[in-house]
From TrEMBL:
MF (Gene Ontology): all-trans-octaprenyl-diphosphate synthase activity; metal ion binding
Name this polypeptide is given: Octaprenyl diphosphate synthase
EC numbers on record: 2.5.1.90
Any GO BP annotation: isoprenoid biosynthetic process
Domain of life: Bacteria
Requisite cofactors: Mg(2+)
InterPro entries: Isoprenoid_synthase_dom_sf, Polyprenyl_synt, Polyprenyl_synt_CS
Function, as annotated: Supplies octaprenyl diphosphate, the precursor for the side chain of the isoprenoid quinones ubiquinone and menaquinone.
Enzyme class: transferase
Amino acid sequence: MDLKTILAPIADDMRQVDATIIARLRSEVVLINEIGHYITSAGGKRLRPALVLMAARACGASGDEPVLHAAMIEFIHTSTLLHDDVVDESGLRRGRKTANAVWGNAGAVLSGDFLYSRAFQMMVESRRMKVMDVMANATNAIAEGEVLQLLNCGDPDTDEARYMRVIELKTARLFEAGCRLGAIAAEQNDAVEQAMYNYGHHLGLAFQLVDDVLDYTADSTVSGKNVGTDLAEGKPTLPLIHVMKHGDAASSALVREAIANGRVDLLDDVLKAVESTGAIPYTRALAERHSLKAVESLGEIPDSPYKNAMIELARFNTNRAA
């Protein structure tokens, strides 16, 4: 089953989200309009706003509040992408030039700030203190995760626990928040909120684990990302950590050198080490375990097309190619 089919139950809601994004992007500053539209029109899976909508409808929410929350979540996510690409000195995302490559670092960072602050304006519109609380904590955690990842870059002593903490903060937190906002919009009890939080937590971890696998296995024409990008940035992701822990002395030393100095010229040898140690199956198996836990989290949620979509999304994630 493809992603479009999975998300069919919220197709009308997603069109409203797109319309809301376009409307809320408007600014009297031309550069903000240009960069904002460039980034939001770049495609992408729109998973985070989709999660808000699926969770809200699965919990019985009606009306337009979930649409507002979904657009707000996408603005937060987009602002982090703008900032990430500057920090990582990235030139390509989703198969085309990054905003910083087109307009420079200053324009990208400041436009990211605009999207971030616009998201908080939208949070206030919900008039729910709980929404503000969830999102304030989530965005703070994301910032912590980004800083922790920065500290890990170039450090071959990063272990699996440190890696998992990074992806919990920088990726899973926004998934958790989006799913929890769905339950809040439906005015559900704490148990349902927790179930949605747990689903988002495990799906977010699985999503990042698969992303880190794809950095070493994906077809760049499909994923829009060159193989070995994380290696070039000195990021010790789980496939590399697995090699350093379970590979022979030569393989471990090779990967340590590649991480410490961003040795993308060693990519072919690193790929061989990744393959010989079973690092990809190991990482995929962990992603699958978290996907199963995500599905289990929905056990007490009433059956509906929206719950089914959330289940299928967790299954889809482990096998995606981009």
